[in-house]
Write a structure and sequence with these properties.
mainly beta; Thiol Ester Dehydrase, Chain A; seven-stranded antiparallel beta sheet; 7 strands; 40% strand
Length: 147
């Protein structure tokens, strides 16, 4: 098992800063999967919340950040300038709102296809071992020039 990575380590891998870095830690990762946890869905100042409400579909951003962290951890890419969500497929929301969940979010992503800057992941979010959100995402990574 690989070592756990904290929030600062995640922030170094993804193109988000401050409160927009939504994940707290990476629990496990390997060549094709990553599992992270987050508690920011309960934060009253969550940057994705509207009028104090964090709809379940916002879980896609949590999954996207796990995917970006996975790319950085596996060495497949350097820290991207941005990632563009090209498509979502088979998205299922099992709850209406994330902010009403008392437990931590567990965010799992599995790399299905990698073709240069284009990747496809399957993702699942759970809380207290109950399904929250799942689906597949195609992402185009803009890594920019080598520094």
């Amino acid at each position: 098992m690989t070592p756990r990575l904290d929030r600062a380590g995640i922030a170094a891998l993804i193109p988000h800063e401050g409160s927009m870095c939504l994940l707290d830690a990476v629990l496990t990762w390997d060549a094709t999967t990553i599992t992270c946890v987050a508690s920011s869905h309960r934060s009253t100042d969550n940057p994705l919340a509207v009028d104090g409400r964090l709809d379940a579909v916002c879980g896609v951003e949590y999954a996207s950040q796990a995917m970006a962290a996975h790319g950085g951890l596996t060495g497949k890419m350097r820290r991207p300038r941005a990632g563009y969500l090209a498509s979502l497929r088979d998205v299922v929301c099992c709850v209406e709102r994330l902010d009403l969940l008392e437990g931590q979010l567990q965010v799992f992503a599995e790399l299905l296809i990698a073709d240069g800057p284009r990747v496809i992941y399957r993702f699942e979010l759970t809380s207290d071992a109950k399904p929250v959100l799942s689906g597949r995402a195609a992402v185009v990574i803009d890594a920019g020039p080598l520094e």
